[in-house]
Amino acid sequence: MTVTTPKGFRAGGVAAGLKTGGGPDVAVVVNDGPDATVAGVFTANRVKAAPVMWSQQVLKGGVLRAVVLNSGGANACTGTQGFRDTHATAEHTAAALRTGPKPLLVGAGDIAVCSTGLIGELLPMDKLLPGVTAAVKALRTDGGPAAAEAIMTTDTVAKNAVARGHGWSVGGMAKGAGMLAPALATMLVVLTTDAVAGSEALDTALREATRLTFDRIDADGCMSTNDTVLLLASGASDVQPTQEELTAAVTAVCDDLARQLINDAEGATKHIAIEVLGAASEADAVEVGRTVARNNLVKTALFGNDPNWGRILAAVGTTAAAFVPDRIDVAVNGVWVCRGGAAAEDRSKVDLKGRDVTITVHLHEGEMSATIRTTDLSHAYVHENSAYSS
Description:
This protein has 390 residues and is of the alpha+beta class. The protein contains 10 helices and 15 strands. The protein has helices at residues 50-58, 79-98, 125-137, 144-150, 199-212, 243-263, 282-294, 296-303, 309-316, 379-386, and strands spanning 9-14, 26-31, 37-42, 66-70, 111-115, 159-164, 169-175, 188-193, 228-233, 271-279, 329-332, 335-339, 342-343, 356-362, 368-375. α1 packs across α2 (79-98) and α2 runs parallel beside α3 (125-137). It starts with 8 loop residues before the first strand and ends with a helix.
């Protein structure tokens, strides 16, 4: 149930020694065709890692044969040498695929590169390149789970998802547990489909899916330098779905992966959905939801099982969204603790013992809505991120 579920794809993951713990850290995903169309979305951070800049160039042609991914190092803020290392990785991957067990006539321009890990250090190329060779040799039609494991960093579990159409499917794998914020949220995601679809159709589907899923998770408000989401189509099913069918399937896989990302967020003890209802526009709903999701006082209150709705209302008040303060309603896990901008049901009725929390904010300004997923702010999150580089 992963990237190799759709026909026409192989994947592999191996340990190359990039991670100090010795776990799998290099993955390759290959599109055997017959088609090789692609679409991608990348971080909006102005400080972009070398692999992002490389892959953005590669995708301009709308064709892609393979993706090589590594954990154990982000290759971000590494200057010209970092970009040369990315180019060398693509060249090496292409050469390995040309001479591998199932040779493919590919060049470096057919290969996307993704990296994740600590920012500011060059990758150990003497370990990475042999790892790429080993990953190519390990390519299998059922190799998706191994690839998903190899891209984990602080993730505690591998993340895979599948959606099925009539005679075709979409598969995906993701990594991400920290620096989760929009545009895109810190992640590497590879999506595959055996549908027949051109690069424009893939782009339309991916951007709509990303807008509704990955761009609406926000654990800590920190945007990464390496975010990459790729959607590859092999056409191996010989089925051409409608744009609506393709978009729905891609969105389903992205939504599943987004939920897995937020559920595995670093140090989280609560999985929180901020539902904004009655907004004048979708943009207003997203702004309100995102502001509440990023508010440290709200997040710490929920960590302490405190349904402190005053902090929620105060966070809403910092936005530019259309609302009248005396008309806002707020519920926590179904208990309307605030009506008309004032106290309503007794907050002691709110049960926060479980991991799942839903905050509902009704603005009473229109018909638009949005949901932002976030987490609480825990001691474990502070500890993990204070010691990440050591």
